[in-house]
Design a protein that fits this description.
Radius of gyration of chain A: 33 Å
Number of strands of chain A: 21
Shape of chain A: elongated
Structural class of chain B: alpha/beta
Helix content of chain A: 40-55%
Largest sheet of chain A: 10 strands, mixed
Order of helices and strands of chain B: HEEEHEEHEHHHEHEEE
Helix content of chain B: 25-40%
Strand content of chain B: 25-35%
Oligomer: heterodimer
Distance between the termini of chain A: 19 Å
Number of helices of chain A: 25
Radius of gyration of chain B: 18 Å
CATH class of chain B: Alpha Beta
Structural class of chain A: alpha+beta
Shape of chain B: globular
Strand order of the largest sheet of chain B: 6-7-8-3-9-10
Number of strands of chain B: 10
Number of domains of chain B: 1
Strand content of chain A: 15-25%
Largest sheet of chain B: 6 strands, mixed
Chain lengths: ~775, ~260
Amino acid sequence: MSPLNKRVIRNLKKSKLQYFAIMTVMMVGILIYIAMNMGIGNFENSANTYYEKNNLADITAEVVKIPINSLDIVKHIEGVKNVEGRIKRDVPLIIDGTNEKVTVRIISVPDNIEINKLYEINGKSKFNSIYDVFVIEQFVQGRDIKLDDILTLQINGKRYDLNVVSEVGSPEFVYLMKDSQALLPDFKKFGVIYVSEKFAKDAFGMGNSYNELTIDIKDGYNPEKVKDEVEKVLDKYGAKRVITRKDQLSYMIVKEEIKGGKKSSSVLPLVFLIVAGAILTVMINRLVKNDRMTIGVLKSMGYTNLEVLIHYSKFAVFIGLAGSFAGIVIGVLLSKSFTKMYTMYYKVHYITVEYYPSYLIGAVFLSLLFSVGAGVLGAKNSLKIAPAESMRKEPPKRGKRVLFEGTKFWNKIKFTDKMVWRNLMRKKTRVVFIAMGVAVTLLVVVVPLFFFGEMPKMFTEQYGKTLTMEYDINFVAPTGMESIDVIKDNISYSKIEPKLDYPFEIESKWRSKIVSVVGMKEDTIMYHFKDMEGNILIPKKDFVYITSGLAKLLEVEVGDDININNYIPGKNDIVVKINGIVKQNLGSNIYMDIDFMQRKLVDRDAISGVYINSDDDVKKKLENVYNISSVSSLSDISSSFKEFMKITSASISAMLFFGFILGFAIMYNTTIMTINSRTMEFSSLRILGMSKNEIIGMIIEENFIISILGIIIGIPLAKFSSENMMNAFSTDIYSFSGTVEPKSYVIGILITLGFIFLAELAAYGKIKNLNFLDALKERAS
Amino acid sequence: MLFSAVQTEKIKEEYKVNSNEYEKNDVAIEIINLKKHYQMGEIKVKALRGSSFEVMDGEFVVVLGPSGSGKSTLLNMIGGMDNPTEGSVKFYNADVTKYSEKQLTQYRRDEVGFVFQFYNLMASLTAKENVELATEICSNPLDIDMIMNDVGLSERAGHFPSQMSGGEQQRVAIARAVAKNPKILLCDEPTGALDYTTGKKILQLLVDVNKKYKKTVIVITHNAAIGDIADKVIKMRSGEVEEIIENKNPISPERVEW
């Protein structure tokens, strides 16, 4: 090994803690890059494999009724490869002795199922009796259902005892939610049960008909175009809702999660790599400055500028590669856990864990890019050092009178305080460098704190301020206004309001999305809408509001027209004008006057549920009301929300943890670098008779003042970064849009000060052990 | 490493073309009306105000003068470390002051060995590695072990500078300069940081190098007594050559007293 390379390694060893701190930041950046990308990549691949192997339907069509022999008509549509019919209906599960409202979706399974094939987890693969059922895995886990358990269902007023013979997964319900209106999953309250066709036909009285078709299309055909044809053909069978795979609820949520994960996996590593690169640049820069004489000696020996530049860049490259290697190893190990974390919430099978060479190459490339960049940027000053000049001592800078000098305040303060202020005023670059370190530390701590604060806020904004109900009651199917009276008769309440909640396809130009359209009274007492500026929106007759996220997606504004595509038999598509954009972070909706919605879209008088505020035992008292499918209290929704946000929450926790590492690394390095570059100054002070404690006191005082400056810079920086990172964490289902709370700043400042304190401790040790005489004698390093 | 080797070859080619190789001449260094002005902070320093002299091949020359007389600046000019404001430095008839940056690098690499007052060793390299640092990049280095032996440091080759005395460190610095096999050795106050006895030993070593390896040696010092060991003494004051003394009978460093 060449002597210069030996020097690199020995000098790295000498300042191992400092380099280790930067290496850790680099490592974390690469670790996140590898773990997240591979984790998400594996999850995406597994999901795609699952969809492919179990043949997730390309198109799903809900109809009122279609005879078995009419399936051929659909099969003959150009582009259709295969069609299967099934009977699907939501029914209540009877749980004796409790007041729980549990809904199960019954889906019939043909003998030779080809589309939406089930994944056998546990139990039998065939029905031996018409009362045998397969149960979806989430529901099995949610309700702790065992094989051979009996589930009692109420179908058309009749009780059926069904025998659980198998636990299954379905590509259709990777993420199990009742419907898009549900917004949040609840595996205890909603499940899917697969039954034999015979049982479904008998129990629902469907004869030789189905009410839903699953369609597989041929390769190379545009699903949207085939869907349009299917709609036309099914019109006479009472087509209710025809959707392609991209609008299928579970599929859409999985894709959104992958999209969000990919966004985060591209932003987060960059934050760490940029910080590591910045610290490395400054560190190499300082090293070059301190090594002025050494560089002169090297040049006097005939080393070229490029050789000197490469020598100093090697410090950065070594750190980069070491960090990259450690990051790759830990990242690869963690990627498996990352995929597992996803599969805890998204029930994907055929999990494939691969180690993608492209990400490994990407990691090495990224670390080289940032470390070589940092090395060259930091060491480029070595090119400027003329050999002869470097052999001369740097001329002392001319001391100027500082701002307060000569004032009464100045004359009153201690000598050491004067030194502190003179240092601060004269070494502006150093002050800015440390202040920026404090500011970035504050930023990396405040950003995750902001997101932590935003999550519950997102919920309380939606279910505390916008919608002020205590119970959300949903009927099995849309019913007449008289259903309210049934509820009124059963419970005492302070407020009650009907709602009509139904999914429609909303279209604007070529953009469309299926969302829940919610109808409410013009003088609603439960909803309190605000626009993007926070102004209260007062609904007027026939009002139509759109939520902010949906407006952005469809690129529409107030005054624009949107199409509402209606699949309810006998009802037409309508065009409506948007009267207001509602600020909403949870879910995408259209809100409109219930009267208008009933007239134009559903049925006069139709309601799908009610909102209630009541101190009564609502759940218990409504348990015997037959047409109620669910009664959710605010706390039920809150716990579902927490469950739903678990992955995001875990990501933010990891971000906070890594933020701590980053913060400490920044503060430790900035402090140590400053101490290292001032050994000569401190040695001179010692020779002049100052004690170690007096010097440390001065450093603490200096750093305290700089920290205040750093915090002042850091607050707007943290605010700006938080608000700009919201996009990375937002999906179609939820979005962040708040501002950083003062509490987050206070906690962030306290944590930053804690890091500064720890760094000061390290600096204390360094100064205590500093050999002042040696430092004064030192001529090369 | 491959890159720097390629680059070195390129520099050498260019260097050869421009210097036409050295012509055999008795004059090793020719200084012609050399002036150097530079800015130090807010002060303009006139370090050299027009000096001229010659150094013959194989000569042991002492440049004598008080602090601030321009000795170090002169040495830097001869060593290709700095460019003059005016005048020229000729090295075996080739005008070093007309060299490009690359040629100067090659010149320092192959032709010049520097010895500094404060040794300027790399603290994190052993004595031998410090010498290797120099030999690694030059085209015709001497055997390192032989040099280490000649400077009396065979036993200390694996020691770090912090484990050595000042005299030993200066020996390493001399070994580092000699091992490159340069034509000329430039020593900037080589005894300035050493005690009397050690200083004399270092001077003896330089004389030995001059004799054994036939190197032209230029020592700059403020210590007038050292002049007695030189073939030629160039006295400087305020950036000008005050006097040039040819010494027909230089004495052994052992006999020098100060």
